[in-house]
Amino acid sequence: MALPAARKKLMTFPGSGPEKGASPAYRKNYSLVLPASVFFCSLILVLLVYFLFAGTAGEIDSELKVMTFNLRFDNPADGPHGWPHRLQAVVELIRTQKVDLCGTQEVLKNQLADLLLRLPEYNYVGVGREDGKEAGEFSAIFYRRDRFIPETSGTFWLSQSPEIPGSKGWDAACERIVTWGIFWMPSSGKRLAVFNTHFDHLGETARRESARLLVKKIKELAGELPVILTGDFNAPPDSEPVKIILESGSLLDSRTEAISLIGPAWSFHGFGRVPEERRPLIDFIFVSCHFSVLEYNSIFREINGTYYSDHNPVAVRLKWKPLKD
Questions:
Q1: Phi/psi of residue 134, nearest 5 degrees
Q2: Strand pairing partners for 152?
Q3: What is the residue range of 184's domain?
Q4: pTM for the full model?
Q5: Distance (Å, rounded) from C-alpha 159 to C-alpha 270?
Q6: Which listed site, 88, 116, 164, 303, has its alpha carbon 20 to 30 Å from 246?
Q7: How many structural domains is the chain composed of?
């Protein structure tokens, strides 16, 4: 049955072009309508993709993965637990954990070179504790190049003369340092201060006075900025140095604050030689009130007869809290 001409025209699909015999004006209008419709459809698609990506990027940008990691210095006497046997596992851990900031302890210059060669997406700030250059152990802060730009950084010594390289403090057995940096995140414009340290293993007075000096310096250098403090404090949670840090009123223990806890409640195991009931928690990540702690993970794992280190690497997942009006 033949359709009326008017009905036939209504059923014509726009993409099929104007009907034969249409007037020149109709053909001109049709040629304008089709590109415009394609343009608006494309615009809507682009906007949808943009907002989807922006939302995902915003969620990623609101979180940070931070680690404190006493890597154990490159000591040939460690035998099967020596650095050459652990290096590749350490590299894979940092990469698979997608660490943004990593405060390290006991790192020697050759170990820094090993890590930077295998982790080109990272850089570091820090100096050797013996001369303020390359001698001795570093307390280096590694950071992701694609997320952070260091605005300024430095190192001070945990002693009565913190500005003098190589100075020892109080009853400390070794030179002890704090490396710090003020970092800018280009993707969000956020700024934060990161401090990383390694307290003395023998000097009780040194640990106490180091905590007092550290709290003072954080206030001087960070001001009102968000703060992350990582380190091997050689002191358990109920010790005086840790209490001094917490009682400063500006820092919180990430383990206590964490929504999710993973791994053991201790961090030092001496390559598995310390009996489990005697293993202490001496590695900490402290954060200011600008962050929520979503997850705390003390990572203990045996790998081919050894471990990542004689300490557990400790990783936390942080989320920036919304700014208050």
A1: -125, -5
A2: 182
A3: 63-320
A4: 0.83
A5: 27
A6: 164
A7: 2
